[in-house]
């Protein structure tokens, strides 16, 4: 699978795109890139894509080596890099779970244990309903929830996971109460249940339902972000749809990071290099072909995103423990 994925990534590179100027000068040996997920998923794919586009920026004879370490729900890989020497030779793909797990007693490390480099995924959470649903706007959906507390069935990828917490956040913001239905096997089964009309809505990322929306099977009512999502430019944000005073932001992100307290020069080289990479049209087109919308959130901006989410999920998880 890994060999096939690498070949696919190479095919996405246009002629001449790999001949980039060397911008990483510190490596004297290979850099390990720990991916705390199984091969083939969005986090794994985006990680391999970004390091593939950065490969010619490395010194001759060195390379970035991706290693999948999904053990312990990904905690094993996170711990390895968090405890590594801060020399820039170990990187790791952190995900939004890093903002949740510490508050759930699942992880001893937080965003503070890492130096963010570049964001490869930052897709907003969206409210999705069946195309046959009577709700054509997010306001209609919320109004129905207010009129029928605890009756509208909203699917998620498991209790305490991002989409379940997003549902709780919606309840908090709008004064509603849903019947939260967990599908612990992931978003796939929850989307299938929505297609089969077994539930009323699903919270997931817009890209995960694009094929069903394009086919006229599902429809997206709103996205939890400060701006509209490029895949569905006609779908409003929560602030727009509900006439709120503030933005509602919840995103499923993946951030390539290294160990905390890394040397400032090494940090600058890594952040500058990957900022250039994610701005290149070839890289952005490669991501789009894989159903991932490119973003440019790097360095300190990525740190602030991780910090904000750590605080947000801390509050939401604390509220669930009170119930």
Automatic annotation (TrEMBL):
<feature type="signal peptide">
    <location>
        <begin position="1"/>
        <end position="20"/>
    </location>
</feature>
<dbReference type="InterPro" id="IPR042100">
    <property type="entry name" value="Bug_dom1"/>
</dbReference>
<dbReference type="Pfam" id="PF03401">
    <property type="entry name" value="TctC"/>
</dbReference>
<dbReference type="InterPro" id="IPR005064">
    <property type="entry name" value="BUG"/>
</dbReference>
<protein>
    <submittedName>
        <fullName>Tricarboxylate transport protein</fullName>
    </submittedName>
</protein>
<keyword id="KW-0732">Signal</keyword>
<comment type="similarity">
    <text>Belongs to the UPF0065 (bug) family.</text>
</comment>
